[in-house]
Task: structure prediction
Amino acid sequence: MSISSFWLTSILLASNLAAPPAVGTVAWQAALDRAGFSPGIIDGKAGPKMELALRAFQSARGLRVTGLQDDATRKALGVEKVPATTNYKITAADAKMVQPPPKKWQDKAKRSRLGYRSLADLVGERGHCTQALLAQLNPRKSLGKLKPGDVVVIPSVWSPNADPRAARLEVNLSTKTIRVLNKSNKVVALLHCSIAKDKDKRPKGRAKVVSVSKNPVYLFDPKMWPEVKDVKKKLRIPPGPRNPVGLAWIGLSLPGYGIHGTPEPEMIGKTGSHGCFRLTNWDAVRLSRMVKVGTPVEFVEAASSYAAQR
Result:
């Protein structure tokens, strides 16, 4: 058993809980997340997004690129230096952030804020994880009955390190990733995104960042949402984590295009957007700290450059 697995098991036993499956994978995913190389939403499953993150991290650190959980990568990531999970205590302030958004756009526009659907929804975002994994980490808790004062086990994703500054961004339309590069042209972060479902709406060439906003208001234009039949005019949609663009908006020099958060973190990379580049809220907020007005953005269509080294 790894050190991380031992710590997590000890925590769970101390709380009279049973150890969940795939503890080792959670530790690796959390470590990648802390390093800025997103494995996708943390789910305890070693899938293609996690492999891509491993390859990107290995390439950035000058390691042998395998996409595997090898010893050299384990040491470089510090997988066993931080416990796989941590305890999160729900506060009264958290409870106030639970403001389930209505379904109809007209009703959303009447709200002052679009909050989380439940405390479990909020806690999952705090741990960058799926609701299924949250349930696995807390098998004796009823996630639908959480309240202030409850302590919930979540992946340990907080990092004390400052976010690196971006010299430029590279949006890969083939792998649905955003690479953050520094002045030395070194990849310092990798984030997964959703792209336009309509191929004709996917941009080409270059652009630049023209604005960076936290807690943005969203202007709903029915022309951009042909599937919505009952809205005939533009609507002002209030800010909040379940706003259509989430907790951060990075406007691009292409009219109407931006990089932003999402109200549906588990759907990143699985569903297409209306044209913009969608990230989980935590990745959108993280990226908003890395860029500034004027940061160059390049759009490419290429297979992963992180080929395994044999």
Observations:
- The chain has a mean pLDDT of 90.
- The chain has nine helices and twelve strands.
- The longest helix spans residues 23-35.
